[in-house]
Amino acid sequence: MVRPRKTAGETTSTIYRGADGSWHARVTVGKRPDGSVDRKHLQRRTKTELRDAVRDLERLRDTRRYVRTDDDCTLSAWLEQWLGTVLPMTARWKTLSTYRSQMQRHVIPVLGGWRLSELQPEQLEEHYRQMSADGCSVHTVRAVHRVLRSALNEAVRRRRLGANPALIARPPRLDDVEVEPLTIAESRKVLAAAQSTPHPPRWSIALSLGLRQGEALGLLWGDVDLERGELRVRRSVQRHTWEHGCAGSDGCPTCGQRRGAECPGRANGGLVLVAPKTNASCRTIVLPGPLRDELAAHRAQLNRRRLAAGTSWDTTHDLVFPTNTGGLIDPKDDHRDWKTLLKRAGVHVVRLHDARHTAATLLLVQGVDIRTVMSIMGWTEMATAQRYTHAVDELRRRAAQQMGSLLWEQSSF
């Protein structure tokens, strides 16, 4: 395919001697964001030096390696542009909210005033050390590093920055912390104790299917096929930050409150149902027989509660695990109920997300192959599976027994 020939205005460079005695040049390097021609000015003492500089600049332009140094914005301005106009095209609300919070809290107050071209790897590493000294966890520092790396990668891709210093800077090392999932005996104790809770299948699903918290709380009865014994994961509960609903003509809040949640006209916040974060998260899972029976009994009990509540029952969503009035359960309340359940069951305290670790590990203990486990859990990468599954005692003993049978089995000849 023949490339279209560039016009003279796109390639011609003008060289002249100025009244100051120096040699000047105007080199066309492309177009500005507003569509106007971008002509870069060069100045040298001699004509030979200027010609060399012009050729170097033209070479960068023709190989698409030229960086607009005359538009060297601050890191704060670039982050605002990236978070405000670039990232929303592909990222989800939760991602945008988290990234913006991290940058506004940890980066912009300290590094926001620096020009992009001034940022150096050592400067970022010093900032990471200071964050650690101020009490930030390694997870927080590494999360900030990942967001900065992504933002500056986009600046390089758009030729606003020559090289990304975050690719060179090294964040603090993250020590691997082995999670101890619940054992089979402990899981059974938890399920027994859960029978006295308002939603016993909530915890059965957590320990047997490994659904994420938001996925479990976002289940609708339309997602559960009790006849086929299947459950479809199609949405998740998420909390959105409240926004001010009282902005004036200048876009600033007029209610006098700092937080959007305190605004009398607050909007676009609270608990909402959203699509899962990846396509793999939308999945169909076959239910164990006892769990299907438990869900059927739970549905009958829930229907009786709904009839007793009458018009006070929230009919917006037909939730499998609703509040006492039929609404969405707050993840904070759900996490508190999990801690209470563990205490009642008399087992060691683990995070609610560790129930997901437990489910994956119990599947492996039963000899389920890793690809099937990945399908049930909604993973797409083997590296993710390796982080969630743990070599518990049962697996180590089985591996030792298999190796013993293989190498020390008595020969028949």
UniProtKB/TrEMBL annotation:
Gene Ontology BP annotations: DNA integration; DNA recombination
Superkingdom in the source lineage: Bacteria
Keyword Ribosomal protein: no
Annotated TM spans: none
Keyword DNA-binding: yes
Database matches in InterPro entries: CB, DNA_brk_join_enz, Integrase-like_cat_sf, Integrase_catalytic, Integrase_recombinase_N, Integrase_SAM-like_N, Tyrosine_recombinase_XerCD
A Pfam family the protein falls into: Phage_integrase
Domain annotation Core-binding (CB): ranges: 73-156
The entry's keywords: DNA integration, DNA recombination, DNA-binding
SUPFAM superfamilies found in the cross-reference section: DNA breaking-rejoining enzymes
Residue ranges of domain Tyr recombinase in the record: 177-401
GO molecular function: DNA binding
Cited CDD domains: INT_ICEBs1_C_like
Protein name per the record: Site-specific integrase
